[in-house]
Design a protein that fits this description.
heterodimer, A: alpha+beta, Aldehyde Oxidoreductase, domain 4, 7-stranded mixed sheet, 18 helices, globular, B: DNA polymerase, domain 1, 2 domains, 5-stranded mixed sheet, about 15% strand
Chain lengths: ~725, ~200
C-alpha cells in the first residue's frame, strides 16, 4: 500500500502535545519589548486631540506612537492585487491620520518592558472625537449598492443572468419566495494573532501569524518601501486561522513600526477582544431566494439576490452566489449581489467563503420546496442533478455527488425518515432529520518546492506554505516519501519561512493540490540528479552515494503549475450532509445529536486527517447553525459581545456523534495527485442540514441563523 | 475548567489587594469600579513595585527577580521563563488554553498571580512526559488526532489528565461535560473524548 492514502498520525503531533511547537508570538529575540494598542471608541469621525502624556509617564513605558509622531509609510501599490485582498478600496493605514473609520481602530501604540505595562499604558490614552460624518451602522439591504466592476472581474459582479428567470418564476406552478439571514461570524482561532518584529539595519524579520509568509513579506516590503529580499517572515506553526490570517493586517505594520522606532525587537499580540476588530470576519448577509418548479420538482426558475456587508473603505465581495449558479440544473436563472458599506472593519474570507454562506439560503430553500411538493429532499435534488456546470456551461472534471447522496443516506439511516415534520418524539425531545448538499470550488496555484538529500540518509523538503491545522506537515511528508521511495521517518518537511521556495496562500483548500505536485516535481528532479552520480545505486542508498562522490548534499528545486483544466472544466468538491437534532418540546433548546457527511473530495491523501478536518467543519457548522452571532450595537457601532465567552462557540458538551465518509474518487484533471481539497467543503452544507432538521423536528422554519431557543420559541 | 479559579486560595496576596495597593502606590486615589477607564487604572502596574519570587515548576525551582507583583502565572511562564507550552488564548479564563496543574489541580494560569503560587508544585505541559516518553494521554492525543492546529492542545491535555484524576472520565458524556472549559476551534472534540477515554481505561 502506498503511503499516500494511509491514515498515518501527524508527524508534528509529538511537538504539539509536549509544548515544543512554537507559534508566532512565542519567539523572543534578545531585548524583546511588548506593545499594546489604544483603540477608537467611536465608529466614525476625527480625533480632536490625543493626549499621550499619562501613557508616556506610566511605569515601564518606553514609547508611545500616534498619528502625530509615527513615520509616514509609503504604502506602495502592488502591480496586481492578490486574491486575499478586497477587490476595491484602500486599505487602512494605521497611525496615518486623525480619521476614524470604525470602532476599534488602533489610534495609539504603547511599547513597554512587559505586556502588562504596555496594556496599562494604552489604557491611559484618552481621545475625544468629532463624530462627523454620521456613522453608517445599520445592516439594511435597502441601503445596499451593487458590487463594482472590479468585483465583476473576479466573478463577484452585481448580476448574472441566463434565460428569463423572472418570467419563468411568474409562470411556475409551485413557487417559493423567502429571505434568509446569517449573522456576522468571527473566526476566533485559539491562537490570537501576534507579530514579533526585529530590525537589523534595514532588514526586517517578522515572526508573524500568517497563512501566507510570501505575501506578508511582499506586503510589508511595499508598506515600508523596502526590497522584498530585506524582509523575512517566519511562522512554523499557525494556531488556527480559518481565513483570518490570509491578509497582512495592520497589527503587523504596527509591530514593525514600533520595533524600528524603539530600536529593539517588539511583540504585538492581539487580545481576544481585538480579534473582533483587527482581523476581519464573515460579514452579515441576507439572501432573497425565489424558486419556481413544476409539480414533478423540476426547477423552472432560480433567483437569488444576496446582500452582504463591507466596510466604508474597502469592498469585500465573495463568491456568495457560487452555489446558486452551480449546484442544480435550471435553464432560467438570475443572481444579484449588493453590499452595504458600514463603519466596520473590512470582512475577509472565513472558511468556505461565500459558498458556505450561499448554501445556507439555497439548501434551506430547497428543503422548503421539497416540503411544498411533498417530496423527499434527496429526490428533489436528484431530479435537478446538474450533469454539467449550469452557470459556466462547462463539463465537470469529476462529480460523484450521486454517490455522496446514496452512501451518506445509507450510513445515516435516511430511509427511515418520516416525510412529515414533528412526527417523532422521544421523551421531552422532538427528533428531526435534515440534509443539504455541499459544494465548493476547487483550485490550484503555481508552487515551488526543494528537496535536499543529506548524508545522514534523510531528505529535507521545503516550501513556503503553511499548516494552520489541516496537516500540511504530514501530508507533504507522505507525498515526498512516496515520490522518493523512502520511509516517512527519513523525510522531513519544513514550511513557514519566506526564504523557502514560494507558495501562494494556504487557503481555499488549495494547498494539497498546489504544493503536493511541486514536491513531486522536486523529488523527480533530485532523483535525476542523484542518478547522474549514483552509478545505478538505488535511491535509498543515497547516503553512500554522497560519501563516495564527496558531496555534502544533492539538492533540487522545481515548480508545478496548473494547466488549462480550470478553464476547460468546472472543478468542484461535492458532498451530502445529514443531521439529526433533538429539540426540547417546551424550552426549544436544540442539540445536534448526529451528523454524517459523505464527500467527493477526490483522492484522500490521509484519511485520518481528512476525517478530522470534516468533523471539525461540522463543529463549526453547529456553531453557525445554533450559536455564533456577533451582536452588533447599531447605535454605538460596536460589537457588544466581544469575548469568547459571550460570542458563543461550540464546546465539547455540544458535540455528539459526528462521522465523515469519503466516496472513492480521483480527480483526473486538477493535479497529478487526484485531490480536490477538503477543508472548505467540510463546513459547506452543515448549517442548512441542521436548520432543515430543526424544521423536521418542530414543523417551524427559522430563516435567521443562528437558530437560538428564543428565535425557535417565537417562530 | 477551573471551577475553583485559584484566586481565593492564597491568604497573603489576593489580586484585588495588589490592584488596590498598585493604585495607591501610583498616587491616584479613586473609587472602585466607577467607569471602565477608572477600573483599568486601578488594575495598572505599581510603579517600582517589583518583587522576587521562587516558583517550583516541573520539579525545578525557578527564581524570578524584579518582576511586577501583579504578573499572572501565565505571563510568568511564557514571557519570563519562556515556558511557552502553556498557551494564551484569551487572558480572561474563558478558553482554557492556559491550563496548568497547581498541586495536582487544574488551574487557568491567566486567572492567578505567580506570587500566589510560591511553595506549590506547578506542572506544565513541558513536565508531563517522563524521560522523553510521552504521557499516555499525550500519546493518545497523537493516536486519535485529538487536535489540528495544536494551540489548545497543551491546555486540553493538562485538563484531560486532571479530568481523569478527578474521576470525571467515567463516560463520554461525563468527559464532554468536564472538558467543556477548554475550547477547541478546529473542532477536535470527538477525538479529544476518544483520547481521554483511552487514557482513562489504561489507568483503570
Amino acid at each position: 500500500m502506498s503511503v499516500i492514502g494511509s491514515p498515518v498520525s501527524r508527524v508534528d503531533g509529538p511537538a504539539k502535545v509536549n509544548g515544543e511547537a512554537h507559534y508566532a508570538g512565542e519567539f523572543a529575540p534578545k531585548d524583546l519589548l511588548y506593545a499594546a494598542t489604544a483603540d477608537s471608541t467611536c465608529p466614525a469621525g476625527t480625533i480632536v486631540t490625543l493626549d499621550t502624556r499619562d501613557a508616556a509617564r506610566a511605569p515601564g513605558v518606553l514609547l508611545v506612537l500616534t498619528h502625530l509622531n509615527a513615520d509616514r509609510l509609503p504604502y506602495q501599490e502592488p502591480a496586481e492585487r492578490v486574491a486575499v485582498d478586497p477587490v476595491a478600496g484602500a486599505q487602512l493605514r494605521v497611525l496615518d491620520g486623525p480619521a476614524i473609520l470604525f470602532s476599534g481602530q488602533p489610534i495609539a501604540l504603547v511599547v513597554a518592558r512587559t505586556q502588562a505595562q504596555a496594556e496599562y499604558g494604552a489604557s491611559l490614552v484618552p481621545a475625544p472625537y468629532d463624530a462627523d460624518p454620521p456613522a453608517k451602522l445599520r445592516f439594511d439591504p435597502a441601503l445596499a449598492q451593487p458590487t463594482s466592476e472590479a468585483a465583476a472581474k473576479k466573478k463577484r459582479g452585481p448580476e448574472t443572468r441566463k434565460g428569463d428567470a423572472e418570467g419563468a418564476f411568474a409562470r411556475a406552478p409551485v413557487t417559493l419566495d423567502e429571505r434568509y439571514r446569517l449573522s456576522r461570524e468571527q473566526h476566533h482561532p485559539m491562537e490570537p494573532h501576534a507579530t514579533v518584529a526585529e530590525w537589523t539595519g534595514d532588514r526586517l524579520t517578522l515572526w508573524s501569524k500568517t497563512q501566507w509568509v510570501g505575501n506578508e513579506r511582499d506586503e510589508i516590503a511595499r508598506r515600508f518601501g523596502l526590497p522584498p529580499a530585506n524582509v523575512r517572515v517566519i511562522n512554523p506553526y499557525v494556531g488556527g486561522a480559518f481565513g483570518s490570517s490570509l491578509r497582512t493586517w495592520p497589527h503587523v505594520t504596527l509591530a514593525a513600526m514600533a520595533a524600528r522606532r524603539a530600536r529593539r525587537p517588539v511583540r504585538l499580540e492581539l487580545t481576544r477582544r481585538q480579534l473582533f476588530t483587527f482581523v476581519g470576519h464573515r460579514g452579515q448577509s441576507e439572501q432573497h431566494v425565489r424558486l419556481g418548479a413544476d409539480p414533478n420538482g423540476r426547477l423552472l426558475a432560480t433567483i437569488c439576490e444576496a446582500t452582504g456587508q463591507t466596510s466604508t473603505y474597502e469592498e469585500f465581495a465573495e463568491p456568495l452566489l457560487g452555489p446558486a449558479g452551480a449546484t442544480y440544473a435550471c435553464d432560467d436563472r438570475l443572481t444579484r449581489y449588493k453590499l452595504v458599506p458600514m463603519n466596520v472593519n473590512t470582512p475577509c474570507p472565513m472558511r468556505g467563503p461565500g459558498w458556505a454562506t450561499g448554501l445556507v439560503a439555497q439548501e434551506m430553500a430547497m428543503d422548503e420546496l421539497a416540503e411544498r411538493l411533498g417530496m423527499d429532499p434527496i429526490e428533489l435534488r436528484l431530479r435537478n442533478y446538474a450533469e454539467r456546470d449550469p452557470m459556466k456551461d462547462l463539463p465537470w472534471s469529476s462529480k460523484a455527488l450521486r454517490e455522496c447522496y446514496a452512501q451518506g443516506a445509507e450510513r445515516f439511516g435516511w430511509s427511515k425518515r418520516p416525510l412529515k415534520p414533528r412526527a417523532r418524539r422521544d421523551g421531552r425531545d422532538l427528533v428531526g432529520l435534515g440534509m443539504a448538499t455541499a459544494i465548493y470550488d476547487s483550485g490550484r496555484y503555481p508552487t515551488s518546492a526543494s528537496v535536499a538529500l543529506l548524508p545522514d540518509g534523510t531528505a529535507l523538503v521545503r516550501c513556503a506554505t503553511a499548516d494552520m491545522g489541516p496537516g500540511t506537515y504530514t501530508s507533504m511528508t507522505q507525498v515526498a516519501a512516496d515520490a522518493l521511495g523512502l520511509p516517512l521517518a527519513r523525510v522531513r518537511f519544513e514550511l513557514g519561512d519566506s526564504t523557502f521556495p514560494p507558495a501562494k496562500e494556504h487557503g481555499g483548500s488549495t494547498t494539497m493540490a498546489s504544493v503536493g505536485p511541486a514536491i513531486q516535481e522536486a523529488c523527480g528532479a533530485v532523483k535525476a540528479k542523484l542518478a547522474g552520480v549514483a552509478d545505478g545505486a538505488p535511491i535509498t542508498d543515497f547516503a553512500a552515494v554522497l560519501r563516495r562522490a564527496g558531496l555534502d548534499r544533492i539538492e533540487a528545486e522545481a515548480s508545478a503549475k496548473p494547466d488549462d483544466a480550470m478553464k476547460t472544466h468546472s472543478i468542484n468538491g461535492f458532498g451530502a450532509v445529514f443531521a439529526e437534532v433533538r429539540v426540547d418540546v417546551d424550552l426549544c433548546t436544540i442539540r445536534a445529536t448526529r451528523i454524517v457527511g459523505a464527500y467527493d473530495a477526490g483522492r484522500i491523501v490521509n484519511p485520518k486527517l481528512a476525517h478530522s478536518q470534516c468533523i471539525g467543519g461540522m463543529v463549526q457548522g453547529i456553531g453557525m447553525a445554533l450559536f455564533e452571532d456577533v451582536e452588533w450595537d447599531e447605535h454605538l457601532g460596536r460589537v457588544s459581545n466581544g469575548t469568547i465567552a459571550e460570542y458563543i462557540v461550540p464546546v465539547n458538551a455540544d458535540i455528539h456523534d459526528l462521522d465523515a465518509i469519503f466516496v472513492d474518487t480521483r480527480e483526473p484533471l486538477l493535479n497529478p495527485l487526484g485531490v480536490k481539497g477538503v477543508a472548505e467543503l467540510g463546513l459547506c452544507g452543515v448549517a442548512p442540514a441542521i436548520a432543515n432538521a430543526v424544521w423536521h423536528a418542530t414543523g417551524k422554519r427559522v430563516r435567521n441563523l443562528p437558530i437560538t431557543p428564543d428565535r425557535l420559541l417565537t417562530a | 475548567m477551573t471551577r475553583d479559579g485559584g484566586e481565593a486560595a492564597d491568604p497573603d496576596w489576593s489580586r484585588r489587594e495588589i490592584m488596590i495597593t498598585a493604585a495607591a502606590a501610583g498616587g491616584s486615589v479613586m473609587s472602585m469600579g466607577t467607569t471602565a477607564a477608572a477600573a483599568a487604572k486601578i488594575a495598572g502596574p505599581a510603579g517600582d513595585r517589583t518583587i522576587d519570587l521562587v516558583l517550583t515548576i516541573n520539579w525545578t525551582e525557578h527564581r524570578l527577580t524584579g518582576i511586577e507583583a501583579h504578573t499572572t502565572l501565565l505571563d510568568a511562564l511564557r514571557d519570563h521563563l519562556h515556558l511557552t507550552g502553556t498557551k494564551k488564548g484569551c487572558g480572561l479564563g474563558q478558553c482554557g488554553a492556559c491550563t496548568v496543574h497547581v498541586d495536582g489541580r487544574r488551574v487557568n494560569s491567566c486567572l492567578t498571580l505567580a506570587v500566589m503560587q510560591q511553595g506549590k508544585a506547578i506542572t506544565t505541559i513541558e513536565g508531563l512526559a517522563v524521560q522523553e516518553a510521552l504521557h499516555p494521554l499525550q500519546a493518545a492525543f497523537v493516536e486519535h488526532d485529538g487536535f489540528q492546529c495544536g494551540y489548545c492542545t497543551p491546555g486540553q491535555i493538562m485538563s484531560g489528565v486532571a479530568c481523569i484524576a478527578e474521576g470525571h472520565a467515567g463516560s463520554d458524556d461525563e468527559i464532554r461535560e468536564w472538558m467543556s472549559g477548554n475550547l477547541c476551534r478546529c473542532g477536535a472534540y470527538s477525538n479529544i473524548v476518544a483520547s481521554i477515554r483511552q487514557a482513562a481505561a489504561g489507568k483503570a
